[in-house]
Write a structure and sequence with these properties.
Strand content: 15-25%
Number of helices: 8
CATH topology: Beta Polymerase, domain 2
Distance between the termini: 35 Å
Radius of gyration: 19 Å
Shape: globular
Structural class: alpha+beta
CATH architecture: 2-Layer Sandwich
């Protein structure tokens, strides 16, 4: 099945999924311009990178877009985005949304609404379609897993709370304790027990094992109607994660992260 046939089957023009992808592409292009203006290196992550290599855009049945960057660049971007995002977009980070406790950021669209299946978003201020921004850092696997033991209680508090908003005070306190005290101590340990491998930053419940030379320098490839950066060794990393990544799954289906989605017209 060629790309045109895949588009017609899974995300034809006008479909809800295609509208979501178009809105994410709008968010992405704004982030890309800001990163290029300030010379902040980043690259497409996971399934978004797979889509760029295999489909020259979104995986036709996918409804998210993720990017990655090294943690110092991420911290710099968290300062820049509130100053430079247009009015139709907003940064979701603990500095802009007090109840947002994830350790990766989102740039949200203000002209849409979605309710995620995990339910954590019910206590957040912003609920629009988004692009995820993940920081990476060089830490041993055991230190990364230790950070999940300490930070994981934030998720448990919300999952088990009868009144999520009442639980948020404890969640915010624990999240702040991790960011300000526990994680700095773990990073000191990481300097003692050095590793050459990079992983998602502390507290993020996902794993990858990559070398810095796998990421940089990035190279740009076609992504929908624009271009996007991918890892220098994208094919190597995709093989490690997905095996024969160019082979389509037998029965792909839409991988929705949301139960309810509403989209207004794009603003110029």
């Amino acid at each position: 099945m060629n790309q045109a046939e895949l588009r017609q089957r899974y995300n034809p023009d006008g479909s809800l999924l295609r509208q979501m992808q178009e809105r994410m592409l709008h968010i992405y292009e704004v982030i890309d311009r800001i990163c290029q203006r300030h010379e902040i290196p980043y690259w497409l992550s996971g399934g978004s990178m797979l889509g760029a290599v295999r489909h020259q855009g979104f995986i036709p049945w996918d409804d998210d877009l993720d990017i990655e960057m090294l943690r110092p660049d991420f911290e710099r971007l968290m300062v820049l985005l509130p100053q430079e995002l247009p009015q139709d977009l907003v940064l979701q980070w603990h500095t802009t949304d007090p109840n947002y406790f994830f350790l990766y950021a989102k740039v949200r669209d203000r002209n849409s609404f979605l309710a995620e299946r995990n339910g954590y978003d019910r206590v957040w201020q912003e609920h629009g379609i988004y692009v995820d921004i993940f920081p990476l850092e060089r830490v041993p696997l055991w230190i990364h897993k230790t950070s999940l033991l300490t930070f994981g209680h934030t998720y448990k508090m919300l999952r088990t709370a009868r009144e999520p908003m009442l639980a948020m005070r404890r969640v915010r306190l624990l999240a702040a304790a991790n960011r300000n005290f526990i994680f700095p101590l773990l990073r000191l340990l990481a300097k003692v027990f050095r590793t050459q491998y990079y992983d998602f930053a502390l507290g993020i419940p996902y794993f990858q094992k990559s070398l810095k030379e796998d990421f940089l320098p990035v190279r740009r490839v076609r992504f929908e109607v624009t271009t996007a950066p991918i890892m220098r060794e994208a094919e190597k990393c995709l093989t490690y994660r997905y095996g024969d990544y160019m082979r389509l799954p037998d029965n792909p289906g839409a991988q929705y992260h949301a139960d309810d989605v509403k989209i207004e017209g794009l603003k110029d």
